[in-house]
Amino acid sequence: MDAHTERAVADVSAFVEAVTETRKYLAKVSDPDRIDAAESELLGRKSLLVLARRQLGNLPSDIRKQAGRRVNEARDRLQQAVDEARSRVKAELRVQSYETDRLDLTERLISQRQRRGSLHLITQARDHLEDIFVGMGFTVAEGPEVESAWYNYEALNIPEWHPARGSFDTLFVDLGEPEEVMLRSHNSPVQIRTMEACEPPIYIVAPGRAFRRDTADATHLPTFNQIEGLVVDHDITMADLAGTVDEFVKAFFGREVDCRLRPSHFPFTEPSAEFDVSRPDGSWLELGGCGMVHPDVLRNCEVDPEVWQGFAFGFGIDRLVAIRYQLEDIRELANSDVRFLRQFQHPVREVLL
Ligand code: FA5
Predict the structure, then answer these.
(1) What count of Cα atoms within 13 Å lies in the side-chain half-sphere of residue 329?
(2) Does ligand 1 have an atom closer than 6 angstroms to the CB of 316?
(3) Mean pLDDT by 10-residue block, N- to C-terminus, for the chain (353 residues)?
């Protein structure tokens, strides 16, 4: 065998041996870069494979074919070992990432339990108001938030030409005739719906949202909450109204808070009054309107004013809350800022988030 042939046989054998060694190495390696490096060293452009293939041409024809087969088989074995190593390492890395990215759910559960949600201040106040009035013999009534002109205005003695319509800054809904369908601008429509549906005597309160084209400021919100009250019975007088309002104020705010009625005007009550409560600084804040139900309103609901009399009131719940918790600005109630709301978590009604 001449020197060229010897060299060629040695290079072919070197490749085959290197494949055997590298397969053992690949079976243990767990670094993808090392797999790439081994593949390129043995099978790449300047690899032992390229050299061995080049040397095949220097072999005598009787052994070239067999040597070629050895080289190809070794290359296939190595390629298979590289592929297996890659999928094994990929699987190992996946398992590792499951471990490192795993969420510690135990920890999460504990912290969730510690951070409890609670009912919004308005909901708490609404529940409290309902409890007070139910304790005084009232039941709770509801009405829709989208109303027709009949319920929001006309049945309440506010005909189309009446200037009081303007004072309600109504938000109309683009439905039916112009200005016929609206977001209720007060909760008084529930008076009408209740009188239409039930025979007197009636003792109801109707808490819920009302809507006006008011710009938000310290005492106004475009979406706010009112509680409407209606009593229809025999021999009801203004004294019953004053006594009920006074009793409610003492129950909600405490005995030290005063209230006063100021003469006012609402088309649906006669006489009418505005109702204020005292603030800690001695000033008064208007909470709502009230009065004796106007005979025309009773007639609109087919209740005979000669037989039945009634009083009604409508208070702003957001303002009640502002006074009770000494909030400077009722916009806090609409901001949904949990840092603010968490200060008023209700101890009993806490709910787990
Ligand atoms: C009314 O809405 C009458 N329906 C109340 C009434 C009922 C009178 C029954 C007589 C008999 P008024 O527009 O004044 O009245 O509103 C009543 C209260 O709702 C106000 O005193 C205030 O506490 C609250 N309120 C009105 N507008 C807003 C607003 N934009 N933001 C927050 N509270 C408001």
Answers:
(1) 8
(2) yes
(3) 86 91 92 92 89 88 89 92 93 88 64 70 94 97 97 96 85 92 97 97 98 95 98 97 94 88 96 90 90 98 98 96 90 89 66 42
* Closest residue to atom 23 of ligand 1, CA basis: 316
| Amino acid identity, position 181 | V
CA distances from 250 to 48, 69, 257, 297, 326 (A): 97, 103, 7, 30, 16
Residue 186 neighbours by CB under 8 Å, 6+ apart: 152, 168, 210, 226, 228, 314
Q: Are strands 139-140 and 202-211 parallel, antiparallel or unpaired?
A: parallel
CB 312 within 8 A of CB 291: yes
**Global pTM?**
0.70
Model pLDDT for residues 31-76, shown as the tens digit of each residue: 999 999 999 998 988 888 888 888 888 888 888 889 899 999 999 9
At residue 92, the 3 state secondary structure works out as helix
Distance (angstroms) between ligand 1 centre and the Cα of 186 equals: 7
The C-alpha atoms of residue 205 and residue 190 are separated, in whole angstroms, by 9
Looking from the CA of 72 toward its CB, the CA atoms found within 13 Å total 7
- The two most distant CA atoms of the chain are separated, in Å, by 136
Q: How far is the CA of 278 from the centre of ligand 1 (A)?
A: 17
DSSP 130-146: HHHHHHTT-EE----SE
Q: How far apart are CA 328 and CA 348, in angstroms?
A: 26
Three-class DSSP category at 20: helix
Contacts 24+ apart (CB under 8 A), 286-289: 286/319, 287/259, 287/315, 287/316, 287/319, 287/320, 287/323, 288/226, 288/313, 288/314, 288/315, 288/316, 289/264, 289/313, 289/314
Hunting for tokens 């229809």 — which residue is that?
232
